[in-house]
Design goal:
single chain; about 45% helix; 4 strands; about 120 residues; alpha+beta
């Protein structure tokens, strides 16, 4: 036959050994399919709903890393520059301390600091 042992004991041993490996392979296939399914679902969730923009940002100087201007989160005027997300309270404090407000998105008006 195919280089199989002729006696029954060794044939049963081979059968058991191969059954064990088939079970391990089946478990590995199930785990890989589950990982693939979860990765696909995660990718679909990310593609379906982009994260909302942060509520408040400050433009940061390229070299000195100091705040330059406060922006509403969706402002695109500093989209190409460095920026940092800040809380509403921090944005209010920075504006109150004299940091410049973006003239396009007007965060000072959004925060109710203009009279």
């Amino acid at each position: 036959m195919y280089d199989l042992p002729p006696d029954l004991d060794r044939l049963h041993t081979l059968r058991t050994w191969h059954a064990m490996w088939l079970d391990r392979i089946d478990q590995a296939i199930k785990a890989a399919e589950q990982q693939e399914r979860e990765a696909r679902q995660a990718h679909e969730r990310r593609a379906a709903a982009p994260p909302p923009p942060p509520s408040w940002m400050i433009g940061v100087h390229q070299l000195s890393n100091t705040p330059e201007e406060v922006h509403v989160g969706g402002c695109i005027m500093w989209a190409h520059r460095r920026r940092k997300t800040v809380t509403r309270e921090e944005a209010r404090r920075l504006l109150a301390d004299g940091l410049r407000a973006c003239q396009f998105c007007k965060p000072d008006a959004e925060l109710g600091l203009l009279e």
